[in-house]
Amino acid sequence: MKYYVIADEDTTLGFSLVGLSGQAVSNASQARVAWDKALEDKDNAVIIITEPVADMIRDTVDRYLFSENFPLVVEIPKPGSSSGRDLRSLVNEAVGVSL
After folding, report:
1. Residue 31 host element (H or E)
2. Is the dihedral of CA 18, 28, 78, 58 positive or negative?
3. Over the Cα atoms of the chain, what is R_g?
4. Cα 93 from chain centroid?
């Protein structure tokens, strides 16, 4: 089971420090390419995508969320967001295991 991160450069780098692969994106075109790449690898069980990046390709993300069931897509708040919940608890809740 692999995780794949689609996010800004800082978030992607942070996740890479704990062994997760991914792609840093800064626009909608890069986000679509990263999304397609993540779906191509059938070993990716969880796609972690930041909310701002998901908003860039919202139609694609929503269409996939409501029509597919694997891999799991976890949308996390943007860095520095005051969502009141830490990143670890968001991912743990979505995945169902403690990281």
Report:
1. helix 28-40
2. negative
3. 12
4. 14
| Structural domain range at position 65 | 2-95
CATH number, domain with residue 12: 3.40.50.10580
Determine the Cα–Cα distance for residues 93 and 87; give it in Å rounded to an integer.
10
Q: Phi and psi dihedrals of 31, rounded to 5? A: -65, -40
Task: Read off the pLDDT of residues 30-83 as tens digits, 9 standing for 90 and up.
Answer: 999 999 999 999 999 899 999 999 999 999 998 877 776 678 888 888 766 655
Report whether 24 contacts 31 (CB < 8 A).
no
Are residues 32 and 49 in contact, defined by beta-carbon separation less than 8 angstroms?
no
